[in-house]
């Protein structure tokens, strides 16, 4: 393996995804973390914000304005949507050699009008939006390897699309009858103070949110429609579960004429046979969030429904790793010609 060091900056290092990116990056043999930004914590060492990152010889947190982009070869962005576009534009215009891996939602949707409809603001960098490559690694690997700007998928779309795209692409399911029951740990809501994620509000219970209005729905529809060849609308309902990390999506689908759950399982297993991080379980095996916690893995299982002609497809991943920082690092490896699994081979933490 090459021993070259690639200088990396992390925008939004005080958020959960930013912190997990740093945690993974410091053990990556080819990464040198040189810039960390966190406007609200600027001037602090990162261990003051995240004590678990103590003793790693990391640079102090600075504001975005203070960051020296001449000191980086790649930027990972963990900022909230709406705050990324202008920064990305500025960095790439002033330092065109830099590669940008965006973990926010700002470049995921290819259509600027769709972005404005769902996020409530006009896109500020449409020329970059058209350049951005959607970073679902196992499906856009070749494009990612040549990209300067990669838009990493949301956590829910990663879990959903990993399970659904091979089936829709092979014509094994009716893409117009996809029902998605999705559940995520509280870290998926970010680190900001919100009433519904307070311990007394989120603990000891489960609740749906953004019913019929979640912003990951158009992202899922964009990718399924592209593979299916016509516009698709999915039924997608997310739920908040009182755990810190993890995500499980249950998909209810109608099989194509003459196809069964076994056909779907076999197709998924064949599609992901040579992939490092996507594992299709054997008949009867059950995926669980505790089996992927802390890893970059996705587990997928397929079961026959009691309703004739239907199947149930279940996927599980860690929303902060494969659903965000891990997939971002996986894409980084491709962009710099490194082995794809570098820095990501940690085994799931159990129990």
Strand-helix topology:
Elements: E1 6-11, H1 16-25, E2 31-37, H2 46-49, E3 61-62, E4 74-77, H3 85-94, E5 99-102, H4 112-119, H5 126-129, E6 133-134, H6 137-146, E7 149-151, H7 155-169, E8 179-184, H8 199-202, E9 207-208, H9 216-228, E10 235-240, E11 247-254, H10 261-271, E12 278-280, E13 298-304, E14 310-317, H11 321-335
Parallel strand pairs: 1-2, 1-4, 2-3, 4-5, 5-7, 6-7, 8-10, 12-13
Antiparallel strand pairs: 8-11, 9-10, 11-14, 13-14
Describe the model.
- This protein is of the alpha/beta class and 351 residues long.
- It folds into two domains: 6-131, Rossmann fold, CATH 3.40.50.720; 156-319, Dihydrodipicolinate Reductase, domain 2.
- The protein is built from eleven helices and 14 strands.
- It has helices at 16-25, 46-49, 85-94, 112-119, 126-129, 137-146, 155-169, 199-202, 216-228, 261-271, 321-335; strands spanning 6-11, 31-37, 61-62, 74-77, 99-102, 133-134, 149-151, 179-184, 207-208, 235-240, 247-254, 278-280, 298-304, 310-317.
- The chain has a seven-stranded parallel β-sheet with strand order 3-2-1-4-5-7-6, with helices on one face. A seven-stranded mixed β-sheet has the order 9-10-8-11-14-13-12.
- It is globular.
């Amino acid at each position: 393996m090459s021993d070259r060091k690639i200088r990396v900056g992390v925008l939004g290092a005080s958020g959960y995804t930013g912190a997990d990116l740093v945690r993974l990056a410091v053990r990556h043999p080819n990464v040198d973390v040189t810039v960390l930004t966190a406007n609200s914590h600027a001037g602090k060492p990162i261990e003051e914000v995240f004590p678990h990152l103590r003793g790693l010889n990391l640079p102090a947190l600075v504001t975005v304005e203070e960051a020296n982009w001449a000191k980086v070869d790649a930027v990972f962005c963990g900022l909230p949507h709406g705050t990324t576009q202008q920064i990305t534009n500025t960095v790439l215009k002033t330092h065109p050699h830099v590669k940008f891996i965006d973990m926010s939602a700002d470049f995921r949707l290819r259509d600027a009008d769709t972005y404005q409809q769902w996020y409530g603001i006009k896109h500020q960098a449409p020329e970059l939006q058209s350049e951005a490559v959607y970073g679902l690694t196992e499906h856009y690997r070749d494009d990612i390897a040549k990209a300067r700007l990669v838009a990493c998928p949301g956590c829910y779309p990663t879990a959903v699309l990993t399970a659904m795209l091979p089936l829709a692409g092979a014509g094994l399911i009716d893409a117009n009858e996809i029902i998605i029951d999705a559940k995520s740990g509280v870290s998926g809501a970010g680190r900001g103070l919100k009433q519904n994620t307070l311990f007394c509000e989120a603990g000891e219970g489960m609740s749906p949110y953004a019913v019929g209005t979640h912003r990951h729905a158009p992202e899922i529809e964009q990718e399924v429609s592209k593979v299916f060849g016509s516009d698709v609308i999915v039924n997608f309902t997310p739920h908040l579960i009182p755990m810190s990390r993890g995500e499980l999506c249950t998909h209810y689908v109608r099989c194509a004429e003459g196809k069964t759950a076994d056909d779907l399982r076999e197709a998924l297993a064949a599609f992901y046979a040579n992939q490092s991080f996507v594992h299709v379980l054997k008949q009867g095996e059950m995926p669980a969030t505790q089996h992927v916690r802390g890893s970059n893995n996705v587990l997928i299982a397929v079961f026959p429904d009691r309703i004739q002609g239907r199947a149930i497809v279940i996927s599980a991943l860690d929303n902060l790793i494969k659903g965000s920082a891990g997939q971002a690092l996986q894409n980084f490896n491709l962009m710099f010609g490194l082995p794809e699994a570098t820095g990501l081979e940690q085994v799931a933490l159990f129990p």
